[in-house]
Amino acid sequence: MRLPPWAIEAIRNGVADVARKASDTETITRVKAQAAELLRDLPENASRGIDALVKTASETARGAIDQGRESMLRWTERQTDLAVRCLNAGGVLLSRHGSGISLSDHVLQLGCEVLRGDCVDNDLEQQLDRSLTRLLDVDGHAVAVATSLDAAIASLSVLAKERKLVMHRSQAIRLPSGTPLPDAFAGLTLTECGGVQTLEPSDFDGIDHACVILADDGMHPVTPIPINGRDVISVAVLPVATIHQSHESIPSAESLLRSGIDLVVLPGGPLTGGTTAGIIAGKKSLIESIQQDSRWNTHAAAAGIVAMTVAAMTAPSPNPLSVLIDTGEDNLRSRAERMATRLTADESIASCQITDRPARLVADARWQFPSRQLNLRHQTLSAEHWANQLIKQNPAVLTTIDGDNLVVDFRWLPAGEDATLADALGSSETTETAAAGTDDH
Fold it and tell me: Residues of the signal sequence (predicted)?
């Protein structure tokens, strides 16, 4: 994201002051310490401008700073930062290390305006609620936002007041948090039916006054089940989904609601263009019953999260992930070829081969997208040491390992980050001892 003007000005003034102080050789040691601190705190795009700013210093001072620059940068990369940006070259979007997908400026700006704390409260929550009721292109439906997917599922407990919760045994998936879906209904009695392999409509025969939980396991999409029982509502839990139907292969809340599902629960995040949250979409009467329950206060997302969710769903332009999904195969091939040419000329790279395996939204799931990869070998580093070193840099680089090769995939990497990735791959330590030393700091 771009730095605000006031932050850029503060950075420039601070670095310029350091440069002026460095004009005296007696203060060079102090300048080194200050520069190291600045390099640690500044974002990468701000630290790049330090070259121009130190030109005001004396020749002696510039030499001192240049001499220590490489060691300082290497040292600062090893420090523990609160939030380290990552480049996702791993070929899997939703990994345990993160997605590498940033929020759009539109979404982030609205969230910051609400979160900064100095805004007048003109019925903010009511305004957000009204916005949520208008998000779906399905009459009589609304949206509620919880703190997480697990919290959104837990909030469904209010539906069990007058109905029993029923789940087919084949639908007992594990949520992205690691929680088995049945355990997300803590404290409630869950009735199981059917076998663990396949789901048959007849498995639900004789079930009345029930809330039936269906889930997408990543291999089999959720489809409405014809249930003949009385007073039965159906809830679909989708760990991977969007609100509006924007990509044919990715399920959406709107399409399932139109097909007859009563409620859809999905996570907020890269796929929705928003931040981490739990989203409940469905019949307005059911949404209102959830929100009117006293337990909703413990599950409901803060106003800033709700505002960013609304902004993501109403953004005038495609979200960052949609841009990556829509990137053509020719574009990926050209980028891979250009980077291969650059890295082949690097003395530290022993070999480089382009492959065309598909990228995925989730490992071992059905969602695949055409992609291109570089299969790399380092002159001195093993693939494992190299991958560990890259993930500890700032920005961190997510990669995968295939045998003796380090694999970098282009599908989930914005084109504007290609140069940063190439720099990271070409600037690795040249010995396994150095890589092991990095692990000790």
Answer: none
